[in-house]
Amino acid sequence: MADSETQAALEDVVKTIGGVWVLVRNENLDEYLKEIGVNFVLRKLAAAASSTMTITREDNKIRIVTKGPKDTDVSFELNKEVVSHDPNDNEMKATVTWDAGKLTTDSSPTEGSKGKATLVERMMVDDQLIMIVKVNQVEMRRIFKKKS
């Protein structure tokens, strides 16, 4: 992606899905957490927890900060592979792309990691931010509303 295309994509990400988002509901969260090997107690805590996600731009990177039940803070350049971690702290390599209003993170485990290939898509649907997470045949959805 050329530099001007990258800048336009970064601006589009922030314009489309930037801001502070509050979790409204989860769909199929328990099945997803089981699939990636999260134990029963942590799955129940995750299901009961509230969550906020903040999406911003910092220079040539997108930053996503998630608070509760497990805080994360990730920054990445579009279309460049980075090392990341799954919810179980397994090391992953991930590439994030922006296309047609959808922020997609395609992750695969690094050599020796116990992680599982994961696809995460974030997009706007009817004034809500929808986050779809796919691992194997399991699909989980998290629905967020913009914080006022």
From TrEMBL:
SUPFAM superfamilies xrefs? Lipocalins (SSF50814)
For whether the record's keyword set contains Ribosomal protein, the answer is no
- GO: which molecular function terms? lipid binding
Supply the alphabetized keyword list: Lipid-binding
Residue ranges of the Lipocalin/cytosolic fatty-acid binding domain? 19-129
InterPro entries linked to this entry = Calycin, Fatty_acid-bd, ILBP, Lipocln_cytosolic_FA-bd_dom
The UniProt similarity line reads: Belongs to the calycin superfamily. Fatty-acid binding protein (FABP) family.
User: Sorted alphabetically, which PANTHER family does this protein's record hold?
Assistant: FATTY ACID BINDING PROTEIN
Protein name (database record): Fatty acid-binding protein, adipocyte
Please tell me the species this chain comes from: Mizuhopecten yessoensis (Japanese scallop)
